[in-house]
Amino acid sequence: MSAKEFKIALVGCGRIARNHFDAIAGLDGVALSAVCDIVPDRAREAGEQWGVPWFTSYDDMLKQSECDVVVVATPSGVHPAQGIKAAQAGKHVVCEKPMAITLSSADALVQACDDAGVQLFVVKQNRLNPAIQLVRRAIDRGRFGRIYMANATVRWARPQEYYDQAPWRGTWEFDGGAFMNQASHYVDLIQWLVGPVESVMARTATMARRIEAEDSGAAILKFRNGAIGVIEVTMLTYPRNMEGSITLIGETGTVKIGGTAVNKVEHWQFASYDDDDKLIDAAATNPPNVYGYGHAGYYRNVLSVLRGEGGPDTDGRSGRKSLELILGIYESAKTGHEVPLPLRSKL
Ligand SMILES: NC(=O)c1ccc[n+]([C@@H]2O[C@H](COP(=O)([O-])OP(=O)(O)OC[C@H]3O[C@@H](n4cnc5c(N)ncnc54)[C@H](O)[C@@H]3O)[C@@H](O)[C@H]2O)c1
């Protein structure tokens, strides 16, 4: 008997949807079964390209199409409501990052998936970059000793035209700014690798783009293990993306994973030898854009969870942690005060 093929429906046929379509098409055991977008041309184009029914109403897609999983790739502020509807229809949910832009709506999504007994996956594909996986293993094996400093730097360029492509970009209601959207993977990585974070101080600014939220900012983190962290983010780098990096400095190890999107090892030095040291050159990837290749790996995990072979790489509770840190950064920038985590009130 051949293994079950899981059917996947996707809502939100925009820029990131392509990474999902390619990843689903490249993996045996899953198949795209329907697509939906409120813009009819986008839904039709994706439906015709992939040979599946297309919808302009999400409710209709949920009712009429056969699927085991719903991928939510719409503007961030829409994710919880659509994820909750999918869960209530008994579907597993793959939610693009960030899972929500408020903690209360993130919690409602987690709760709905728990109540329905379905899986909630939050897409954090950069955790799967080969170079980042090497760092994760080095930490798990204790190779850094005590970690003193952790840095995430995102020096990217997003011109005004990027924000003008869609009305939701840069708004507080549907998107947030550089921390919540473009740099959210880096906030996630630093807290996943070195966290938990105990408190944060931050400053943000909207210096050059006509958007509600920030185009740049800096945050100083205090980790519970005593380490100090710095996150520097800007979308104003002239003239193009320059760096997306994570640097860790520990007692017995120093590592920088850089490139434009944590895609290569730039510095790797430890007091002790490990066979992983031979893998650092091979860990470099050359992705066509800063989204990287990680969606393919992400779906391999989704499939293995659906088959009951393992747990999710990033579930709702794990996705919520970086959201909480981002909201802490925003709270500190707004009040001028240091903000302790977990947050006292749900933002
Ligand atoms: N994992 C990553 O690296 C990564 C990269 C880019 C974007 N994203 C995330 O993916 C999401 C989408 O980003 P994008 O760049 O593809 O945006 P986009 O604007 O290109 O695409 C969003 C699509 O959703 C559609 N849409 C909006 N509201 C809808 C609704 N209620 N029902 C159905 N369709 C609706 C729009 O018409 C549009 O086609 C965002 O949450 C973003 O943060 C993740």
How far apart, in Å, are the first and last alpha carbons?
49 Å
Structural class: alpha/beta
CATH topology of the largest domain: Dihydrodipicolinate Reductase, domain 2
How many strands?
14
Described by the principal axes of the CA atoms, the overall outline is globular
Enumerate how many helices there are, as a single number. Answer: 10
Mean pLDDT: 96
DSSP helix fraction = 25-40%
Say which CATH homologous superfamily of the largest domain is assigned: Dihydrodipicolinate Reductase, domain 2
Q: Structurally, how many domains make up the residues?
A: 2
> Which strand-content bin applies to the residues?
15-25%
Describe this protein's structure.
The radius of gyration is 20 Å and the shape is globular. Helix 5 packs antiparallel against helix 10. By secondary structure, the chain is α/β, with parallel strands linked by helices. The chain has 2 domains: 141 residues, Rossmann fold, CATH 3.40.50; 162 residues, Dihydrodipicolinate Reductase, domain 2 (2-Layer Sandwich). The termini are far apart. The chain has 10 helices and 14 strands. An 8-stranded mixed β-sheet has the order 13-12-11-7-10-9-8-14. Bound molecules: nicotinamide-adenine-dinucleotide.
Quick tags:
single chain; 347 residues; alpha/beta; Rossmann fold; Dihydrodipicolinate Reductase, domain 2; 2 domains; 10 helices; binds nicotinamide-adenine-dinucleotide
